[in-house]
Fold this protein.
Amino acid sequence: MTSDQSKVVDGTCRAAWSAWGSLADAGTRAGVLEALAAGLDEIREEVLRVASEESALTPAELAPEFARMTGTLRQFAAVAREGSWIGAMIDHASPEPVGAFGGVVGPAHDVRRVLVPLGPVSVFGASNFPLAYGACGGDTASALAAGCPVIVKEHPAHPRTGRLIVGAAREALRGAGHSEDLIALVENADPRDLSPATALVGHPMVRAVGFTGSQRAGLEIARLARERAEPIPAYCEMGSCNPVVVTREAAVARGEAIGRQVAESILLRHGQQCTCPGLLILPPGCGAVVEALAARLAAADPRAMLAPWVRDGYLHRLAECRKARGVETVVYGREGSGQRQAGTCLLRVGAADFAAQPVLHEEVFGPSVLVVELGGMSELRTLPLRGALVGSLYGGVADEGWDLARNRLASMCGRVVFEGVPTGVRVAGAMVHGGPFPATNRPESTACGPMALARWCRPVCLQNAPKEALPAELRDGSWHGTRVVDGRVVPGAG
Amino acid sequence: MTSDQSKVVDGTCRAAWSAWGSLADAGTRAGVLEALAAGLDEIREEVLRVASEESALTPAELAPEFARMTGTLRQFAAVAREGSWIGAMIDHASPEPVGAFGGVVGPAHDVRRVLVPLGPVSVFGASNFPLAYGACGGDTASALAAGCPVIVKEHPAHPRTGRLIVGAAREALRGAGHSEDLIALVENADPRDLSPATALVGHPMVRAVGFTGSQRAGLEIARLARERAEPIPAYCEMGSCNPVVVTREAAVARGEAIGRQVAESILLRHGQQCTCPGLLILPPGCGAVVEALAARLAAADPRAMLAPWVRDGYLHRLAECRKARGVETVVYGREGSGQRQAGTCLLRVGAADFAAQPVLHEEVFGPSVLVVELGGMSELRTLPLRGALVGSLYGGVADEGWDLARNRLASMCGRVVFEGVPTGVRVAGAMVHGGPFPATNRPESTACGPMALARWCRPVCLQNAPKEALPAELRDGSWHGTRVVDGRVVPGAG
């Protein structure tokens, strides 16, 4: 990084820090998010065109993603305005037992707790969702809703898309009377240049990081964040080898339909979704599933992937896995022409060979799946499965091994899908888009849904504070959001 | 560690893992906690005697701490039974906008979220609270309430106390028909022997760590937890240099009373509390505060500290600080006789010398305080203050610099106390006993109060699950705890 580039990063972070105070009010946060959504709506066609050119995703794929981006911005505006997210709790001073939990333990001070924003957040968006997890995606929306300005680290796979979005966002903010420095972008067009990332994560005015990408990059970002003089949290979503389990009974009854469903899930965005099925785990007697899946994958055309290095990484991982002991290549689709094109792949291995070879336990980012053949469902108990974002279970509750599969998936996934594919994430309060390591480094969090803003806050307790020192949500009397007062939930009016 | 000791650790962890399933039911969790509290009540006198012998804390200091320990166990029993802590959320499948946040973003699957326990937790208790933050203290209570068995790492400062408590706890569990392996202790009588800590944090069946102690040990525990093949969370409370700010107006009006209050706060447990005032930050004109504080500290007798190495650490840090440029020793109390005795200390330094010397920014664990003299309250803006558990502010809202002090303290502390001393932690929902680094490594958490159990859980989302796959709190129909259904809070009956 040249000293000029360093100055740009520093100036950007300082501007975000200065703008921070303007987000103190919840109404302002909501207004900012709504202004962004409206501003982006105005350039929808241009965004779709540029994003499609850069990502090789089709307009049909990007149009719903655009709606998801603006829908998420508006949802977080509603969350900010509704106000309960701030987690207000009041325990009045009382020498008597109060609330649901009986007994005062310790001195009966008046204590009041609320979430406060950490400060400017640096967002490292995803390659595979240039809109919904890009410059104005879920991390940006949740950070702004929590009261944190955002500094986007440009993604080298779609620099024009990011610049277009952030430019429009800043213009929309100016137009609505907000500080444009509530969102900014630091350029990083060269994927080999790591200095913008290093400078951002190390800057004292960056107070948290949201990252979506590879495990290697995520672990490095987390390390940089941790080794600062003052460590900051880095929430890293790092890829996932999502398992799909099918019971024998389900396979016998509707194996072909299941195989087709899984195939379509894999083919969405040519396998380039964090929720793409990675493992298909089958007891004996599931041939119909594999046949239908193989037929559909074999018939799929090769497609351009998100970036040349994504294609290279995919082919490299495929080659590694195909060389592993006991792995049979069932489908290896045409690679196509062009620097970014690649085809589908279906591999098959027995449970023992799978268990013994860690190279098979890691994500293959692309349109491939590894079928793991069990000797029986009980082998699920010890099969080495690593933490994943999501797992699917096809089968009925009375099927052999269904309970075991349900419990095993719940123990290692952030989300368990029943009778459905892992792709397709609803943005809702109950959503968990996260999961045990190595899917993320913070399994207690979600990157999707209103709870995502908790990542950008910490609680503060004010003890025996004069009324003037209390924010609105901690004052006695009515407040529009839900809060907990003396151990009892007091629902808001909103 | 000998291979025999390794086997003991391994056996203990395996037994905890096996016992884990017995905590699935909330009523069982509550029963376990109540059995522990009742069992400890039966050996109260013996616990007080042994803990006093080991820690040199007085029975008058330990009696309320005993009540805090059993009160916390019973409070967490109530929390477990009440049930809302599990954070249940339900979003029904609906093609229509539902709930408070309008608009369905993404596919409208039925999604339901709940917290699940991580598994066995290893608790590294505090030297300074052998009961309330010892073997059956807040970390143990919150872990059991969350559904996690506990493996206590013995504290070398009070091994007999820990063995007595865990022995009684296991007997109480047996007596009440629970598995005794829900709590166990790994011995570590020699403070130089780090192998029990290493073995516990590295054991695959330990799924989280709660640590209270020094920064050096805490960072090492966190590193070990992170560098496992499968990283686990380590929640480390690592000491804190807690600031007390007094406005000139408050000092003029009631400086002597404030000085006496701060002195008594320091003298509690001879300065060996994590919430002990460490810095007294004063604008010009606060002489009365310092005079009263100095008089009380100078009159205090030396006392035995918690352990010889605690005394040595205290004297070492005092010597470092007294050598720093511009530091004046106002009080240096008699050291006393005996290997563990030490006296009080009051040091004074100007803001510029303080700012320039990092040796002054770290905790001195013991009965000492550093007065930092400001040229004016505005110097608070840039004074280098590190993350702390708690800060205090004496003064009225109209006083010069009061707003600045309030905001500065809120930006760097987990808790801000108004017109009072930082010692004295209420165990309540709104309590935050935590704070920015280096006070803790997880400022989003609290080690005290019902919210402490969130540390031992992660959320799981079940999508389109059949009723049979849902725990009680996620089924449609009535449930006794509060939950969020389609974006609206539904208060429980409890």
Observations:
- The mean pLDDT of chain B is 95.
- Residues 59-82 of chain B form the longest helix (24 residues).
- Chain B has two domains: 3-238+442-474, 242-418.
